């Protein structure tokens, strides 16, 4: 991606020279769908972007219940009983696409609810095994969704659709499941950091924290590493949005990332408002697709959940109630360090070796 020929450049910028088309060529790699959704009321599988009628009908009723049926490419690594932890559903975006979402119920008493925007070249079928492992380790339940044009989601992949996709899913978490903003953690991986940053930058106090896993500053800066400014044809300009986020921001990046260089993580961290910075995790020797295999990964997320977020809340409470010292001191004493975890996540094979 960092070495484009003259022919590649002409094809990229001249056919036609629209930022949305450039973004699509640079970024989006929808895989062949690895799952389908089956409803007891409608046995016809919904598994393709070529079936808008079925998707529209699916999203029109909140009472419909679906089951995920995985293909071999999904590499589902759990028992059949674990499939009951998956609650798929459809939502309609502001751009009139019906997109597939899934609620992964990992624990009956979750600490938080993570809205996970996955990376490129994968869909919900390939990510579901990973979600169960991650949510169980963190004692959090997970929501995720497929971008327009991915998996069972309708439409085509584009930057604008991506922003509408995450907003529709986020609204469903609050309206369908009645989960408050203070219990939501936004999590973006690779290209998934783009809609995550956009949503968090547009809505104040929309989440307890924002996790950016292998983030990119902008599309042009990935394709052309010497780029120092945002051009009019640039896509995914996260570097110009991240300073508006008003929740705690955790950045995780591998030092040997050959897809999105770690310098992108450094640049974004330096643009986070100082009041919302927390210690980043620069994983020495990690690449783009193996961060989850390092024990420090889960340890840092647990620290965010059990220490960083409570401390930020306590600090805000102290600023709002400076005279109420005794209850605050008791709260501070209740914040304890979680035990160190030396083990690593077992990552589904389908989530590795995927660019962006």
Automatic annotation (TrEMBL):
Residues 316-356 are annotated as: Disordered. Residues 320-333 have a biased composition (Low complexity). Residues 334-356 have a biased composition (Polar residues). SUPFAM superfamilies: alpha/beta-Hydrolases (SSF53474). It is a lipid-anchor. It catalyses: S-hexadecanoyl-L-cysteinyl-[protein] + H2O = L-cysteinyl-[protein] + hexadecanoate + H(+). It comes from the Eukaryota. Residues 109-219 form the Serine aminopeptidase S33 domain. One of its GO terms (cellular component) is plasma membrane. GO terms for molecular function: palmitoyl-(protein) hydrolase activity. Keywords: Cell membrane, Hydrolase, Lipoprotein, Membrane, Palmitate. Its EC number is 3.1.2.22. It is an enzyme of class 3 (hydrolase). It is found in: Cell membrane; Endomembrane system. Belongs to the AB hydrolase superfamily. ABHD17 family. This is palmitoyl-protein hydrolase.
